Structure formats: structure tokens, C-alpha cells
TrEMBL record:
One of its GO terms (molecular function) is oxidoreductase activity. SUPFAM superfamilies: FAD/NAD(P)-binding domain. InterPro entries: FAD/NAD-bd_sf, FAD/NAD-binding_dom, Metab_Enz_Cyan_OpOx_G3PDH. Pfam families: Pyr_redox_2 (PF07992). This is FAD-dependent oxidoreductase. PANTHER family: ANAEROBIC GLYCEROL-3-PHOSPHATE DEHYDROGENASE SUBUNIT B. Residues 6-313 form the FAD/NAD(P)-binding domain. It comes from Anaerobutyricum hallii. Keywords: Oxidoreductase.
Length: 376
């Protein structure tokens, strides 16, 4: 079966929904597809309030932001297909193959494509890491915040970035004991506002430490604790500093990697994203990749916070609508300038500056690529 659409958005997280809303505002026909049975992506796991400025939804919980986006999508008449996997591109731009409810057979022929495929959790390999009870922080968040299921009685968190800190605090809110946070660096890695919460809650902080192994329980059905140790200035365990920490769950929060499987299939040019994580599609200030008419937004273009994903989705939606002739150049420029102003605000400060530089480097290399290829 074939389906024609002006804009196909792949991914119904904060970036994808924002892209769809922005494009639909200007009259574009938009189809959003997502492999999950609920739209909203990470927002519905985020029960904490955003901080920053009012422009960036300060004081609003992620779940409420997700609800607002879904209401706007519905109001604008955007079609959303869930349990739908975009699994391949036909050559020469002939279409995108979708599997709906596990069945193949739908080919979508979009004029523009916005890929907002998100990111996946990084694993951490150590003896016992495949045991039941060793769980990614994102999975923990899904269980306690979405499904209201306890992951265990006592959790040891590995990693102190924003995800590790936020999920640690949410475990405490769910009434689950936290055995501590293990961080190899000499200080916590996330924002002070999140670190302050876990400090005030009295969570033990093992900075300058690493996990050596997960200790299984007697029947190997789970874990009964972990052995951790101090590390030297090369992050190698220091013999004799090992200690046992009792826990029945070990949470892993050691970063995210952009999901570039689908962009890779689309044969866009990939580039190292530096601190934004691994390889990402090269893109310009409109979020357009090296393949004309294919855009990228959110964590798949470089891992940042949900606020940045929302703004990048807006950019891609505006640019796609402009390319379709739904919006004139002057109006589009004003809209995109407003979004870039918001993004620049998000990428300020000691943590944001590095992300700003990494993103600007990607855009600069895209401009060099355009010059090089226009000369060919």
C-alpha cells in the first residue's frame, strides 16, 4: 500500500512533535510515525520540573510539556501512527518503508522527511553486567514513572550526569532506597540544581570510584551488591580500595549515543559530534542534511536536553514548510531567528558552551561541504 504526504516525521518525541506542530501551523500536511505505543518520547518519563527561563518551560514538568505538545498536534490535525517502524528507504527517493503493528507493506512517499529518532543508552561492561538487576537508567525511569513499577528495594547508580542525578532523585520520590552514586570523575557531572537535590537527600556519593563487578545472589537470579573501588588519575582501579555495596539493582547512567541507524540508511553524510555523542548526520542551520529534503532534529543530531530537542524540531519544521512554499522567506527567517535565539540561550554557561561549540562545528563543516560540492 502506498501513501502520499508532504512531510513525514519519524519519531514522536519532543523534537518530532515540535517539528510536526511548526510545519502544520503553516498548512503543511504532516504524518508522524513512532515505533512505540504512546507518543511523547522521553517527556512522559520526566516528572521533574524544567528550569531556566519561562521561554524554556521553566517550572513545568516534562510530562506536562508532552501533554501540551500532544494537544497541539491533535488540534492541528496532524496524523500520528504509533506501533509503526520506519525500517528502510527505497533508492532514488522512491519512498520510506513502514511496518505497522509488526506487519510490512506500507510505503510512504513524502516530499520532505524529518528524522527525530532520538538516542540510545550507553552500556557499561563489567563482570556481572548481564545479570538481572543491572538496568539502564532510562529503563528504570520508564518502570517507575510510566508503569509505576518498583525496580527493586535498593539501587546503586553508576554515573552522575544529569540522567543519573535525576533518576536517582526520582527513585527516592518513588520510595526506593538509593545505596549511592558511583562516579569515576573527581566530581559530579550534572547540573548543580540536580546534584544539590541528591546531596540534600543524603545519598552517598562515591566520586573518584568505579564499579568492579556485580555480585550475584545465590541462585544467579539477580544481584545482591556491587564491588566498587577508587580510581587513579588514569581512571584505573587502585588495588586495595575495593569495597562491597549492598544493593539489588545497579543502574547504568553513562551517557547516550545518537540513534543514526535510519539516517545512515538514507545515505546522509555523518560527522563526529564531539561531546554531543559519536557520529551524527551533518546538517546546516535549517537542520537539513547533505540529502536535500531530509532533516534531522533532537538527540539524533547530537545529544542535548529535551528543551534543545524541542527548538531543533521547530527549526526543521519551519525549514521544511518553507521549502514546500508554505511560508515566505522573510517570515521563515524571522521564525528561525527566534528559535536560534532560544537555542543560543540554552547553550550558554559552563555546560552549554561545549555543546554550542560542537554544534557550531558541525554547521561550519556542513557549509564547507556545500561549497566543495557546489564546485564539483
Amino acid at each position: 500500500m502506498n501513501k502520499e504526504v508532504e512531510i513525514l516525521v519519524i519519531g514522536a518525541g519532543p523534537a518530532g512533535l515540535s517539528a510536526a506542530i511548526e510545519a502544520a501551523k503553516y498548512g503543511a500536511e504532516v504524518l508522524v510515525v513512532d515505533e512505540n505505543n504512546k507518543p511523547g518520547g522521553q517527556l512522559f518519563k520526566q516528572i521533574h520540573k524544567f528550569f531556566g527561563s519561562r521561554r524554556h518551560k521553566a517550572g513545568v514538568r516534562g510530562v506536562d510539556i508532552g501533554t501540551e505538545l500532544l494537544e497541539e498536534v491533535e488540534k492541528l490535525g496532524v496524523e500520528v501512527m504509533l506501533n509503526t517502524v520506519a525500517y528502510g528507504f527505497y533508492p532514488n527517493g522512491e519512498g520510506v518503508a513502514l511496518a505497522v503493528n509488526g506487519e510490512e507493506g506500507l510505503i510512504v512517499h513524502p516530499k520532505k522527511i524529518i528524522m527525530a529518532t532520538g538516542a540510545g543508552e550507553n552500556p557499561l561492561a563489567f563482570p556481572g553486567w548481564t545479570l538481572p538487576g543491572v538496568v539502564g537508567a532510562g529503563a528504570i525511569q520508564t518502570m517507575i514513572n510510566v508503569h509505576r513499577v518498583s525496580v527493586g528495594k535498593r539501587v546503586l547508580m553508576i554515573g552522575s550526569g544529569n540522567v543519573g542525578l535525576i533518576v536517582t532523585y526520582q527513585l527516592l520520590q518513588a520510595g526506593i532506597d538509593v545505596a549511592g552514586i558511583v562516579e569515576a570523575a573527581p566530581q559530579l557531572g550534572g547540573y548543580g540544581v540536580h546534584a544539590g537535590k541528591v546531596r540534600r537527600a543524603g545519598v552517598p556519593l562515591y566520586v573518584g570510584h568505579t564499579v568492579i563487578e556485580a555480585v550475584p545472589n545465590e541462585d544467579m537470579s539477580g544481584v545482591k551488591g556491587a564491588i566498587i573501588a577508587e580510581v587513579d588519575n588514569k581512571f584505573q582501579p587502585i588495588p586495595g580500595t575495593e569495597q562491597f555495596v549492598e544493593c539489588d539493582v545497579i543502574g547504568i547512567a553513562v551517557g547516550l549515543t545518537p540513534d543514526i541507524a535510519l539516517p545512515s540508511m538514507a545515505d546522509v553524510t555523518l560527522i563526529n559530534a564531539g561531546r554531543l555523542g559519536s557520529q551524527v548526520p551533518m546538517h546546516d542551520r535549517n537542520m537539513e542534511t547533505t540529502k536535500e529534503g531530509i532533516y534531522v532534529a533532537g538527540d539524533s543530531s547530537g545529544v542535548e536536553e529535551a528543551s534543545s530537542a524541542i527548538e531543533e524540531g521547530k527549526l526543521a519544521g519551519i525549514a521544511a514548510a518553507e521549502a514546500l512554499g508554505k511560508i515566505d522567506a522573510e517570515t521563515a527567517k524571522e521564525a528561525k531567528d527566534n528559535v536560534w535565539s532560544s537555542l543560543d540561550q540554552l547553550r550558554t554557561g559552563p555546560f552549554g558552551a561545549g555543546r554550542h561549540d560542537a554544534k557550531e562545528q558541525i554547521i561550519e563543516q556542513m557549509e564547507e561541504w556545500k561549497v566543495k560540492n557546489s564546485a564539483c
